[in-house]
Amino acid sequence: MALSEREHQVLDSIARQFAADDPALARSFSEHGTGPVTAERIAGRWDAWPAALIAVCLALFAVVLILSGSPQA
Known about the structure:
- The chain is mostly helical.
- The chain has three helices and no strands.
- Helix 1 packs across helix 2 (23-32).
- It is rod-shaped, with a radius of gyration of 30 Å.
């Protein structure tokens, strides 16, 4: 959603007042606002494979332990 001309004017006025009130802080903020805006990464379907692999290995280990136990007398 684009801003109207009036909204741009209000934001510019706020920015000018902010820069006049505290130039050092305004300069510091202006250095951080550059570059593309990115969203937080959403986990994909293959991101859980390490946990699934560990679960499979533990299950196999449990089966091996059960099958290799001492024979009943």
